[in-house]
Design brief:
Shape: elongated
Helix content: 55-70%
CATH topology of the largest domain: Zinc Finger, Delta Prime, domain 3
Order of helices and strands: EHEHEHEHEHHHHHHHHHHH
CATH class of the largest domain: Mainly Alpha
Radius of gyration: 25 Å
Length: 298
């Protein structure tokens, strides 16, 4: 049999492959698809091996080997019953014969990276994982952890491993032991700027300047400015989450921020960010200095 695990969610792929290997049993062999030859592939997919009754063959990036990928459809019905073939790919060209043959055979399993719309599945996954690790989390704590860490399963898994060593898990211990995802830190920066807390804003930026890229940070801040404008300018009966593709959690945070800072002008904020964006692209000024000046001026 053959299965293909494709996508950017490498954690999900790792877990799925490990499950298949455990279920199938047999000798495990791993290969780089780019370096395989037609002769070697024929040997791997066929039977007749000497040292094991069953064999699990894991091949990474076979699609990057144009010759073998083109030949793959002819091999699908010739794989020995005692051989399990697991292909791992980051992405596939849907126009190729290899992709079409695998899809027709029902061999494709897709693992896209989690996005904002996957927040609830992420919370559910955290709850399940926490139970396996003996970490006492309820839904609210799982949501808080996802909000703090983000939607990367590697980071979420590492966070749960840390929390498994903590006697009692609550929001305070999560904040103490688990580093915040940059996006969470960025919202904190945006919030401090809107509220006019310059002292804490400068301290937070000092910390971010040591670890983050200025241009990437500014892009995230700009996105939050646009989201704030979209949420606050939307008619009362409208649904910004649906209309603008903004996650409901973000909509709630932006509404709370706008409500607590009644004097803000989202349109003017977006204009300021637009000016800074042009300056970042056209001048040799220190990007961190430009970002600080923009935020302080809000």
């Amino acid at each position: 049999m053959i299965e293909v695990f494709v996508g950017e969610n490498t954690f999900g792929i790792k877990e799925a492959v490990a499950e298949r290997v455990a279920d199938f049993g047999g000798e495990v062999e791993r290969y780089d698809g780019e370096t395989l030859t037609p002769e070697r592939l024929a040997d791997l997919l066929g039977g007749g091996f000497l040292f094991a009754d069953r064999r699990c063959v894991i091949i990474r990036d076979l699609s990057k080997n144009a010759v073998l990928w083109g030949q793959l459809p002819t091999w699908l019905d010739r794989i020995a019953d005692t051989t399990q073939v697991l292909l791992i790919e980051e992405k596939l060209d849907k126009r190729t014969a290899g992709y079409k043959a695998l899809k027709q055979a029902g061999a494709l399993r897709e693992f896209p990276a989690w996005g904002e719309r996957d927040r609830q599945p992420a919370i559910n996954w955290v709850l399940t994982r926490a139970k396996l690790l003996g970490v006492g989390l309820n839904t609210n704590l799982a949501r808080h952890l996802v909000d703090r860490v983000g939607l990367d399963q590697w980071q979420l898994s590492a966070a749960l491993e840390k929390l498994s060593l903590v006697d009692q898990v609550n929001e305070a211990t999560i904040d103490e032991y688990i580093d915040a995802h940059p996006s969470e830190s960025v919202f904190r920066v945006f919030e401090l700027a809107i509220r006019g807390d310059r002292t804490q804003l400068q301290k937070t930026l000092d910390t971010l300047e040591m670890t983050e890229d200025a241009y990437a940070l500014f892009a995230l801040l700009s996105a939050q400015a646009v989201q704030l404008l979209a949420v606050t300018s939307a008619p009362a009966a409208s649904d910004p989450a649906k209309d603008f593709g903004i996650h409901p959690f973000v909509v709630t945070k932006m509404r709370q921020l706008a409500k607590s800072s009644a004097a803000i002008n989202p349109g003017r904020i977006v204009e300021r960010f637009a000016v800074t964006d042009r300056q970042l692209k056209s001048s040799a000024a220190d990007p961190w200095l430009l970002i600080r000046k923009t935020l302080i001026a809000l």
